[in-house]
Amino acid sequence: MNKIIEARFIGPDVKLFRIEAPKIAEKRKAGQFVIIRVNDTGERLPLTIADSDTSAGTITIIVQGIGASTKMLNTLNAGDYIHDVVGPLGKASHIENFGTAVSIGGGVGTAIAFPTAKALKEAGNHVISIIGGRSKEFVILEEEMKQVADEVYPTTDDGSYGYHGFVTQKLEELLKSGRKIDFVLAIGPIPMMAAVAKTTQPYNIQTVVSLNPVMVDGTGMCGGCRAYVDNKPVFVCVDGPEFDAHKVDFKILMQRNKMYLPQEKESIEHFNHVCNYDKMYDAEAKKTNHEVTHG
């Protein structure tokens, strides 16, 4: 079991965890992930390692509570324990001095983009970071990005903060201004990554996307993360998770990402039902305790 050293919300239902995992902290590289199980019957959750501290023996993950398992994980706090943390898994990001590199993170994808942006900077690149969210509260890790990138551009869909528009629109603005861009990394919702690939293709810019959203088991055994790259089947968790964006079949990827929606809906409904029951039970217990204590 792995102890949680720090747990805090950094956005709406988005929580940062620092977890004791000294061996993983020592060996992990940018782009790799861990598999987490909250308890012994829990679902396997593939989560990218956002950062690590070898001296403290900790890794950092950032979790968005979308399904039942991630919402359950987000109920844990410092001092609690996670049943399983296995890693590092997946292939590390390919890092070299490209020249000018743009790191794009959409929503919680910024947590995945951060370690690669940091590694790109350490390799001597001029790093531009574009981080997006639906509104200001969904823009995460801006200050952390400023510590590793030369330029940081926050964007919001509703214009509540930073650039009013999508991350792709900001990227297009930079390209049309004549900026020489040598490499682009994009991580976020599948439609966003597809849009980034479409934006950079006419400029012939090397572009990489991380296909983390479709991973399930994390070992290649379940086949749930099968995708098509350059018209060939790959398993994202073992062959990636990063691939040439211009060779990814995003149409098939989006179809596959919707495969488990009915099961996910049923699971979250059950989770919400149990949570509501627990709240009602706690309220009744407090009421009874008050009546016993005060008459």
Folded structure, characterized:
The termini are far apart. The strands form four sheets. A seven-stranded mixed beta sheet has the order 12-11-10-9-13-14-17, with helices on both faces. Strands 5-6-2-1-7 form a five-stranded antiparallel beta sheet. 45% of the residues are buried. The chain is α/β, with parallel strands linked by helices. The longest helix is centred in the C-terminal third of the chain and has 34 residues, at 261-294. It folds into two domains: 2-89, Elongation Factor Tu (Ef-tu), domain 3, CATH 2.40.30.10; 100-257, Nucleotide-binding domain of ferredoxin-NADP reductase (FNR) module (Rossmann fold, 3-Layer(aba) Sandwich), CATH 3.40.50.80. It is built from nine helices and 17 strands. The protein is globular and about 50 Å long. The protein has helices at residues 22-27, 68-73, 109-122, 142-148, 167-176, 190-200, 236-239, 250-257, 261-294, and strands at residues 2-11, 14-20, 33-37, 45-48, 51-53, 58-64, 81-82, 84-89, 100-106, 126-133, 151-156, 163-164, 183-187, 206-210, 226-229, 232-235, 242-244. Helix content is 34%, strand content 30%. Strand 13, helix 6 and strand 14 (206-210) form a beta-alpha-beta unit.
Give a brief description:
With 295 residues, the protein is of the alpha/beta class.
